[in-house]
Design a protein that fits this description.
276 residues; mainly beta; twelve-stranded mixed beta sheet; 3% helix; GLPGLI family protein
């Protein structure tokens, strides 16, 4: 299990609990966060935010439309200049000590869906100066996968569409935005552009402000900002967790050109010719 040293004072608007889990056993982080109920206009080079996360867990196969459970976690986001680090701590570990959600199906058989059971999950780091990111795989398993993925990206790889809808959330003026990849909706978010940010929860990149509420559509996961602070001193060690001293695998760069369809495939062209 991971060891965390915390020096935190969070003012939470809603009670909460748990989520899935990744295997990082040596993470030692000291965090300093001074949360505030005053969500006003701010500016600065450092930001600390924490989130309540709720994920709906569905079955697979014949049970793909059945919601098995909702699990909760806390998310922690740190920004210092153009560096960002994010990770989650699950609240569901005691609820599911066997590492899975289990239900009885209609034919009196037991169905189980594995959960990630480590104490630190979805660790990701984004550097907007070097345009590189580092992240750990999120695995539903009971044994650690000690590997990091390193990947370069184009700053505008993710295209956020800012919509005209605006609303005030806890004193922050928020604007709705969406992001899709190859016409598949990935994110629906409400962002406070008055709080300068370029990355956010789950390592998202290019978001023009602090995420206040967000829905990750493929993961059926919702993020709600509980508190944040600006101008807090953050130790540089926060951005250099012990896990990043472990093995690295290089991933293909994220390039916008790769999102553009490259025309019909050879099989599609042959099919078109045969229909002429």
């Amino acid at each position: 299990m991971a060891t965390l040293r915390q020096k935190t004072t969070f003012v939470l608007r809603n009670p909460a609990g748990g989520c899935p889990r990744i295997f990082m056993k040596n993470l030692i982080i000291t965090f300093f966060a001074f949360a505030t109920l005053s969500f006003g206009k701010v500016a600065g080079q450092s930001v600390v935010a924490n989130y309540l996360i709720s994920q709906d867990i569905y079955g697979t196969g014949d049970l793909s439309e059945k919601k098995l459970a909702t699990i909760q976690s806390r998310g922690y986001l740190y920004r210092q200049n153009n560096q960002y680090i994010y990770f989650e701590r699950p609240n569901y570990l005691e609820t599911y000590p066997n590492g899975s959600v289990e239900i009885q199906t209609g034919n009196n058989q037991q169905y189980s869906r594995a959960l990630c059971m480590d104490t630190i999950q979805r660790l990701s780091f984004v550097d907007m100066d070097s345009l590189q990111r580092i992240y750990r795989p999120h695995i539903a398993a009971k044994h650690p996968l000690r590997v990091n993925y390193r990947q370069s990206f184009e700053a505008d790889y993710f295209s956020w569409i800012m919509l005209p809808e605006v609303r005030e959330i806890n004193g922050l003026k928020c604007q709705k935005a969406t992001m899709s990849i190859r016409d598949n909706l990935q994110w629906i978010v409400w962002v406070a552009t008055e709080v300068p940010m370029q990355a956010g929860v789950l390592g998202v990149i290019g978001i023009p402000g602090l995420i206040v509420e967000a829905d990750c559509v493929p993961l059926k996961t919702r993020y709600v900002l509980q508190s944040y602070s600006v101008g807090t001193s953050i130790p540089q060690s926060v951005f250099k967790p012990a896990e990043f001293l472990e093995k690295f695998d290089e991933m293909p760069a994220l390039r916008k050109a790769n999102l553009v369809p490259k025309g019909p495939s050879k099989i599609q062209r042959q099919a078109e010719l045969s229909n002429q």
